């Protein structure tokens, strides 16, 4: 259906989805991703159909720079998303961002400086007058590298609106094409945030030359509600992350925003100048990719998705009570406001078995959206055959799990050669492990623990000898049934840094051992690289 579009570059009649999973999302404690993992996520975000990928903060560390540059090269194609790099309002940050996004067909620099009095006084130690000078100067500097410049007044939610209007007017006059309004500390309520956006629309004289974007944290659990109110008041770009990951309580969750705008499009249409009955999607997101993207991000970051999480949680489409089940059997609409297939959940049909060959395997993986190199395919095929010997019915979820497990491994410093446990109600849990060290030495040790997993971890610790504290351990089964694959996700801490590990196997002790080794390998890799600057915790040093 055609819509009444009054589109101008600054006032699109649809919502732009700006994904910051790889930048703000990666600032979640323990969510650190390596370059290959970031590329894997960026490719999936492109398949999902996001308009902009904020790929990182290039000045923060050489690893961040490399990741943004590679994503710009490999994902930032002509018909792909805009690739954005974050920069504080300093020349060296902006130069790094410009250099990193250069290979993208469409590159963006996102520069920011705080505007709230609390940040000015205690963090930046600058006056309002100074910020009024720096913001346009740095936007103009960014503009000397790229046409597409986004400006954020950090902590806008707690800034004096009158001061905010002045800063925004100057940033737009200097060339900012998007002005992003962050609720950095997740403090505002929906009504207040909506009013802030309306105030900007009404009081910044040149606002029609820029797209209004919003960015918000979930400290009070209000980020999605705030964004939806912002849309009603003129915001046209939403900055969000998969599974809502990000600093502290995280960011607004992409899947929740997209599905709210989809399921309730008749409600939102008029705010975008469309007839309310218009069926045209409000975003460009391919919703059938949502579940898969959520799983990928969760596996790679080690950030477990709570079962009752809206849209992508394991229970989001499960009906437990008899009354609900009865209603759904009679008519799904009684208790379901959206079809699970919309987010890419299919019935777990049996797709492959023991006698399936490599071609069938490759074809099914392609259908599921996995493009593997020959080496990756060979490794995954071996895992598939091993699984087919143990498990009669292999589902799409099983395939996804073994492929993710096989191709998404952190760099391998320590390698698990053998793990063996003995336990039971009459014996003390004992584990023996053999590991290959980064120097190629084969070392074996054994330990007794409070349970089999504890014994395995203690035995591994005796070999590896890297101090750390296990802070989270979860096991989840991929499908139902006694022969299901178990996925183990763990997080461990060393000092103030958190590292995650993930592994899948039909034997949960083996999965636990691999998950632990993965996390230790990440920790080991991190001790060999330089520390990075965090966007929110750094001062400006121009
Ligand atoms: O939360 C925030 O203010 C940010 C900015 C850098 C946009 O992440
Ligand atoms: Zn943020």
> What would you call the structural class?
alpha/beta
CATH second-level architecture of the largest domain: Alpha-Beta Barrel
Q: Count the helices. How many?
A: 17
The proportion of residues in beta strands is 15-25%
CATH fold label of the largest domain: TIM Barrel
- What's the CATH class of the largest domain, please? Alpha Beta
Uncertain spans, ≥5 residues at pLDDT below 50? 1-6
How big is the Rg? 25 Å
Question: Which features would summarize this protein structure in a list?
Answer:
542 residues, alpha/beta, TIM Barrel, Double Stranded RNA Binding Domain, 3 domains, eight-stranded parallel barrel, three-stranded antiparallel beta sheet, 17 helices, 16 strands, globular, disordered N terminus, binds 3-methyl-2-oxobutanoic acid, binds zinc ion
Report on this model:
With about 550 residues, the protein is an alpha/beta fold. It folds into three domains: about 15-300, Alpha-Beta Barrel (TIM Barrel), CATH 3.20.20.70; about 360-405, no CATH class; about 415-530, Double Stranded RNA Binding Domain (2-Layer Sandwich). The protein has 17 helices and 16 strands. Strands 1-2-3-4-5-6-7-8 form an eight-stranded parallel beta barrel, surrounded by eight helices. Strands 11-12-13 form a three-stranded antiparallel beta sheet, covered by helices on one side. A three-stranded antiparallel beta sheet has the order 14-15-16. Helix 3 (about 90-100) links the parallel strand 3 and strand 4. Helix 1 (about 35-50) packs parallel to helix 2. Bound molecules: 3-methyl-2-oxobutanoic acid (KIV) and zinc ion. 3-methyl-2-oxobutanoic acid binds near residues 24, 152 and 184. 3-methyl-2-oxobutanoic acid (KIV) binds next to strand 5.
């Amino acid at each position: 259906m055609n819509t009444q579009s009054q589109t101008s570059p600054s006032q699109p009649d649809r919502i732009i989805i700006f994904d910051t999973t790889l930048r703000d999302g990666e600032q979640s404690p323990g969510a650190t991703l390596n370059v290959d993992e970031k590329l894997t996520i960026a490719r999936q975000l492109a398949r999902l159909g996001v308009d902009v990928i904020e790929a990182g903060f290039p000045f923060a560390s050489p690893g961040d720079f490399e990741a943004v540059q590679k994503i710009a090269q490999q994902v930032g194609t002509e018909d792909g998303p805009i690739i954005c790099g974050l920069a504080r309002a300093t020349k060296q940050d902006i130069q790094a961002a410009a250099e990193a996004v250069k290979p993208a067909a469409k590159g963006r620099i996102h520069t920011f400086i705080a505007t709230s009095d609390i940040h000015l006084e205690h963090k930046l130690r600058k006056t309002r007058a100074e910020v009024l000078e720096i913001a346009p100067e740095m936007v103009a500097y960014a503009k000397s590298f790229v046409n597409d410049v986004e400006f954020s007044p950090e902590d806008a939610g707690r800034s004096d609106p009158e001061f905010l209007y002045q800063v925004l007017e100057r940033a737009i006059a200097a060339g900012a094409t998007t002005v992003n309004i962050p609720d950095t500390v997740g403090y505002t309520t929906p009504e207040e945030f909506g009013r802030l956006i309306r105030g900007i629309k009404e009081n910044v004289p040149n606002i029609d030359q820029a797209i209004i974007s919003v960015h918000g944290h979930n400290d009070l659990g209000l980020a999605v509600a705030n964004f939806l109110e912002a849309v009603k008041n003129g915001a046209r770009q939403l900055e969000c992350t998969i599974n809502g990951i990000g600093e502290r309580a995280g960011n607004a969750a992409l899947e929740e925003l997209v599905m709210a705008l989809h399921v309730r499009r008749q409600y939102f249409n008029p705010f975008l100048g469309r007839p309310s009955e218009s069926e045209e999607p409000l975003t460009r997101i391919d919703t059938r990719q949502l579940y898969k993207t959520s799983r990928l991000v969760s596996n790679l970051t080690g950030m477990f998705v709570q079962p009752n999480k809206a849209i992508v949680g394991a229970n989001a489409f499960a009906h437990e009570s008899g009354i609900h089940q009865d209603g759904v059997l009679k008519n799904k609409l009684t208790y379901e406001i959206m079809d699970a297939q919309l987010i890419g959940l299919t019935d777990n049909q049996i797709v492959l078995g023991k006698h399936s060959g490599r071609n069938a395997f490759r074809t099914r993986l392609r259908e599921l959206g996995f493009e593997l190199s020959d080496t990756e395919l060979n490794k995954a095929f071996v895992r598939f055959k091993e699984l087919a010997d143990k498990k009669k019915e292999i589902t799409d979820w099983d395939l996804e799990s073994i492929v993710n497990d096989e191709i998404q491994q952190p760099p391998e410093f320590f390698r698990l050669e053998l793990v063996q446990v003995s336990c039971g109600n009459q014996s003390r849990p004992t584990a023996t492990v053999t590991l290959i060290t980064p120097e190629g030495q084969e070392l074996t040790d054994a330990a007794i623990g409070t349970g089999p997993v504890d014994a395995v971890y203690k035995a591994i610790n005796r070999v590896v000898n890297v101090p750390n504290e296990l802070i989270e351990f979860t096991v989840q089964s991929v499908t139902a049934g006694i022969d299901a694959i178990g996925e183990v996700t763990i997080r461990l801490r060393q000092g103030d840094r958190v590292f995650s590990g993930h592994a899948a196997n039909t034997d949960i002790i083996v999965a636990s051992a691999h998950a632990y080794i993965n996390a230790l390998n990440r920790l080991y890799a991190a001790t060999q690289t330089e520390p990075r600057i965090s966007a929110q915790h750094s001062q400006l040093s121009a």
